[in-house]
Amino acid sequence: MDLKRLGWSPLFSEEFEARYADRGYIAGRVALEHKNSFVIHTEQGEIRAEIAGRLRHHAAARADLPAVGDWVAIELRDGHAIIQGVLRRTGWFSRKAPGDAATEQIVAANIDTVFIVVGLDGNFNLRRIERTLILAWESGARPVIVLNKADLCDDIGQRIAEVEEVAIGVPVIPISAAEGKGSEELGTYLPAGTTAVLLGSSGVGKSTITNLLAGEERQRISAVSGSVGKGRHTTTHRELILLPSGGVIIDTPGMRELGLWGEEDSLRETFEDIEALGERCRFSDCGHGSEPGCMIRRALDDGTLDAGRYRNYQKLQRELGYLERRDDVQAALQTKQEWKRRTKAYRAMNKR
Ligand code: GDP
Ligand code: ZN
What we know:
By secondary structure, this protein is of the alpha/beta class. It has twelve helices and 13 strands.
């Protein structure tokens, strides 16, 4: 694999030459992070490598350790591949580490282009686009706004004008990934050797777009299926995807979660009526179940509040709550204990 195809540039090679080349190390780009090892694209193909103890030990922060998209210097010794250094990043996306709000975790490194994906359906929200733009600028990459699901919209011109007003100087591209339209336009922002990520709420079409660009159906890592203790179902999924056109797309679970950040405000806006009802319940901590004086129950009963809409609101609220919990150390520990307890109970049950 030609490193240039993976995004290798003079900036990286200069640093690599200066610091590592005379030691006989080779360069590679991190494609996937496992618990204790990394899958890395190199000139010699894909290899699995571990972090040198020295590097792990001297890392001042978790963010100093390799992440998907990083360029690393690898020592090949006795059939082992050991990561000896991480090259300086041109930019990155990060989040708070799950269960440890004080730790920054890199979710994707060295990105040139951020496709901010918005749905031209119910998902369209200018405030959210503004917030996502800030996230994109902070990553050091160039944002491109992708208005997907153009097939569902009658006034595309109007939408483009609205977006251009809040995103001055940023390209705005309407596409329809489901109809296979727009990959050429996106390709202009993804020439050979550039790296892109897709940022956007769940359901806007990020997977569909990635598949369209990759020109094939890629298998996603499916979460644990079946019962506790069966172990993880693993696939050969790579989070750094090489496109036939020569560009690279990074798609990590962490990147996907970034799409949900800051959606709390839009939840409030979108469901203003439900929030207002809830504030008028008799008890301030009303769970909207069978409590007396619950205004939401009443509205559901007399039909002024649509049950489907309320379910949507609850679903989004749960998703946001889930993200918050992940940032909360205490809750993470509790979840772990609860998980242990359940595993034990499950084992005991099976013994009988
Ligand atoms: P993701 O959560 O952002 O990865 O979104 P997906 O790629 O999974 O798409 C969510 C849903 O939107 C799927 O049912 C897609 O088929 C649909 N979808 C994606 N792109 C388009 C499009 O251009 N037009 C329409 N009508 N639906 C689309
Ligand atoms: Zn209530």
